[in-house]
Amino acid sequence: MVRDDNPAKLAIIKQWDAWAKRHPTDAKLSGGVPFYSYLKRERPDLLLDFKTPGDKWQTIHAWLLSARRVKE
After folding, report:
1. pLDDT above 90 covers what percent of the chain?
2. What span, in angstroms and rounded, lies between the C-alpha atoms of 32 and 45?
3. Which pLDDT belongs to residue 35?
4. How high does pLDDT run on average in the chain?
């Protein structure tokens, strides 16, 4: 379970969990790159609509790492 009050982070982690169940092989690749590609292609209006001072991929990757969903 992700413990955080950031709604964008919680939504991304929840989406990761659902996506990873449907794509277990892709979920193990490249620290989440296929997932980010999926978000950009399928969910940009809902899940990539958050503000961040840096690159959204770097933010999402950091969230997935901190939630122990991916490895470096």
Report:
1. 69
2. 19
3. 96
4. 90
Query: Is residue 72 one of the residues assigned to a domain?
Result: no
- Under a CB-based contact definition with an 8 Å cutoff, are residues 20 and 69 in contact? yes
Task: Please report whether residue 34 resides in a domain.
Answer: yes
**CA atoms of 17 and 23, how far apart (whole Å):** 10
3-state secondary structure of 5: coil
Average pLDDT value for residue range 35-55: 91
Residue 37 placed within a domain: yes
Domain assignment of residue 1, yes or no:
no
Q: How many domains are there within the chain?
A: 1
Dihedral angle, C-alpha 10, 16, 22, 24, nearest 10 °: -140
Tell me the C-alpha to C-alpha distance, in Å, between residue 27 and each of 5, 7, 51, 71: 25, 22, 25, 10
